[in-house]
Amino acid sequence: MIEIRHLKTLIALRETGSLVEAAERVFLTQSALSHQIKELETRLECELFVRKSRPLRFTEAGKRLLQLADEVMTRVTDTERDIKKLTHGEAGRLYMAIECHSCFNWLMPTIELYRNQWPGIELDFSGGFTFEPLPALALGDIDLVITSDPQPIRHVEYVPLFGYEMQIALANHHRLCTRDFLRPEDLRDQTLITYPVERNRLDVFKQFLNPAGVEPLAVRTSELTLMMVQLVASGRGVCALPNWVLAEYVEQGLISVRPAGVEGVHAKLYAAVREEQLHSPYVQDFLTLARAHCLKNLRGVTRITE
């Protein structure tokens, strides 16, 4: 008999592509996970994935079972959500704001999905480059902030959503495209295009230029991500943005990207919530939806296991 634990294991295998990481995801030893899979294959009299394949490849039987896993686990999640609504009620408020100004593309679909599932929750959204959302969160004016720059604020918790890499975007004909990675010194004679926010809130300064004591030739600002990319593509400067933001423009052939430093600059995106609201069912469900949407749809992001 196929059990829920089997379906969870197969989903973990698909998402991680590794027996070791899948075992960690479902809180089993690798030996126990291998035994569970072998037991299921024996029951079904077929193999579910190709051994020693990299990346891991599922057989046709395994793919069919994954379809079942997606259908069943979606229904399980929906049922759990409905029970929480029945138990705790649907009334509440969730006012949101973002400090990550590249997040509109994924946040809007998440909010629309959330509206359908929690119609009784009062939703609102605040934005703008001059707005300081974290202090407003602490005061209770808003309830959730998307940020990559957690600050130590009393009674505010930071829930990790995903990890990402900051990359440097270059025009396709730029001389720095010959490099495998860029050093801070490479930007001394470059115009750096950024969002109009303070430098101490930008990864490119905090984690790349400032530690090396490097100042770009000039800094130009733009409120729109697309405008930043177009300026880069036309050779008017370079910019530093998350890999998942730049991926679609690289795919279209508009720009090229390079890592910032030999190890790259890696960061995390968080949802900031007040302690007293963190465990509210409607807040937890928004966090679950946001994380799942991003891991499924954003290229280059990584799951945070901490």
Automatic annotation (TrEMBL):
GO terms for molecular function: DNA binding; DNA-binding transcription factor activity. GO terms for biological process: methionine biosynthetic process. Gene3D superfamilies: Periplasmic binding protein-like II (3.40.190.10), Winged helix-like DNA-binding domain superfamily/Winged helix DNA-binding domain (1.10.10.10). SUPFAM superfamilies: Periplasmic binding protein-like II (SSF53850), Winged helix' DNA-binding domain (SSF46785). Keywords: Amino-acid biosynthesis, Cytoplasm, DNA-binding, Methionine biosynthesis, Transcription, Transcription regulation. It is found in: Cytoplasm. Residues 2-59 form the HTH lysR-type domain. InterPro entries: LysR_HTH_N (IPR000847), LysR_subst-bd (IPR005119), MetR_PBP2 (IPR037406), WH-like_DNA-bd_sf (IPR036388), WH_DNA-bd_sf (IPR036390). One of its GO terms (cellular component) is protein-DNA complex. Belongs to the LysR transcriptional regulatory family. This is HTH-type transcriptional regulator MetR.
